[in-house]
Specification:
The chain has about 450 residues and is α+β, with helices and mostly antiparallel strands. The protein is built from eleven helices and 24 strands. About 25% of the residues lie in helices and about 35% in strands. The C terminus is likely disordered.
Length: about 450
């Protein structure tokens, strides 16, 4: 049995209040005046009232679940990051958007740095954004029902204490870890290559070596060399054979750089000296162009409030003139899929193409989920060549904000709805659906 109310936290004295309507199941709760809430080792006395929260309190819509004679409030969503300058690292505007969406839809979200987890007491120090005062407030909080992994970079995620924390969180039966870790490109391609339904979409991809570069340059007119742990188009090199020379092209911010080599061996010696991390070599696709500029599809797949994969949204990213990547920070621009696909492929139904892309992205997401069961969202870059064939380019397990407002807003909603589903706090639910959620937390 579930009802919805408003949770308030007085940050100065630590008092928690539960503000409920005097109807239905909530009415019987009002008679209790106060309630002891327990989550694991954490417990808190919550004052129950019909009155509206004080304007100075931190507030969030919240669900109350009754099972037998016990009550639980939630869901609590922990946005996981690491400590750093000004208490924690990460995209704060993204964090505040998640917190605000939770407040409206019925979930209390707070930021947790790995270093602020107290395993012995079963509590964390959470940071909650106070929208009235525009400041972050630190509060002692319980282990959340859902831990949303937003550790901001691979360097932090690869630290031993961070890896140990993720392993511990994964092992806890009372917590759902939402998303595993950053993808590593070569591992990603190895996994996808094994699935027959997906392998047809993959360009040939091998590790960077002298032998592989020579062989790939002989087979393909265009190659891309990408860092295996790259992000947002950083460190990508394009290689083309033109006449009797090899042209190496890359971008420094929005500036295009060309280097010319007589042999692939000379090119290898040059790039090996400037590569500071592992790279892979990938078959270049002769991408379709719009107004003489290459473009690709950026799609966001997320699990919804029923735990099912769906396409949250899809946009087109168009490279700058002569650009080799479509990323907006490197000179790319945004386009509408239906309009651009109709213009580029006038003899093909654009809606049919979009459906095919949706099906492809969902198929890939489900394959990746088999390898990483905690995966619940990922963005993908999909290329379309001049013949209309679709190609998988890359995937990101920690998507950044989409610039399209309708995609951004729905993506935030999906995060909260999936958390509500996994923890069992859903409007109209009579039982908690996820195996982890109904284990006794007391």
């Amino acid at each position: 049995m579930i009802c919805k109310g408003t949770l308030s936290i007085q940050s100065l004295n630590g008092t928690w209040g539960l503000h409920l309507p005097s109807t239905g199941f909530c009415k019987e709760l009002l008679e209790k005046k106060e309630l002891m809430i327990k989550l694991g080792k954490w417990k808190k006395t919550v004052i129950i009232t019909e009155k509206m929260p004080n304007e100075t309190a931190l507030r969030s819509e919240i669900y109350i679940h009754k099972q037998s004679d016990s009550y639980e409030i939630g869901p609590f969503i922990g946005i996981l990051t690491v400590s750093g300058e000004d208490s924690f690292l990460g995209n704060r505007s993204n964090f505040t958007d998640i917190i605000e969406t939770g407040r409206k839809l019925g979930a209390l979200a707070y930021v947790i740095a790995v270093e602020d987890i107290d395993w012995e007491s079963g509590t964390v120090v959470g940071s909650i954004f106070d929208d009235e005062r525009k400041i972050w407030v630190r509060q002692s909080m319980p282990f959340p029902h859902i831990v949303y992994n937003r550790i901001p970079n691979r360097t932090a995620e690869n630290k031993q204490h961070v890896k140990s924390t993720l392993e511990k969180l994964s092992a806890l039966k009372t917590i759902t870890l939402y998303n595993p870790h950053f993808f590593e490109k070569s591992q990603l391609y190895d996994i996808l290559q094994k699935d027959k339904k997906v392998s047809v979409f993959l360009p040939e991809t091998v590790s960077f070596s002298r032998e592989n570069l020579v062989n790939m340059a002989a087979k393909h007119p265009i190659l891309y060399m990408k860092p295996t742990n790259g992000k947002a188009g950083r460190g990508i090199y394009q290689l083309q054979r033109k006449d009797d020379r090899f042209v190496l092209q890359y971008q420094l911010k929005k500036k295009k750089i060309n280097r010319f080599y007589q042999t692939v061996y000379g090119l290898y010696d040059a790039v090996r000296r400037i590569m500071k991390e592992p790279y892979l070599i990938q078959q270049g696709i002769c991408l379709a162009t719009y107004q003489e500029r290459i473009f690709d599809i950026r799609a966001l797949a997320q699990k919804d409030g029923q735990g099912e994969w769906g396409i949250t949204g899809m946009g087109i990213r168009i490279a700058g003139i002569g650009g080799i990547t479509t990323h907006v920070p490197r000179g790319g621009t945004i386009g509408d899929p239906e309009n651009i696909l109709s213009a580029v492929f006038p003899e093909t139904d654009s809606k049919s193409m979009i459906k095919s892309i949706h099906d492809m992205v969902l198929t890939i997401a489900r394959v990746l989920e088999k390898e990483w069961p905690t995966l619940a969202e990922c963005s993908m870059d999909i290329g379309i060549d001049k013949s209309g064939k679709m190609w998988f380019i890359e995937a990101n397990s920690k998507p950044e904000k989409f610039d399209e407002p309708h995609i951004r807003n729905l993506s935030l909603k999906r995060i909260i709805e999936f958390a509500q589903h996994k923890s069992g706090f859903q409007k109209g639910s009579n039982t908690q659906k996820n195996d982890k959620s109904h284990i006794d937390r007391t």
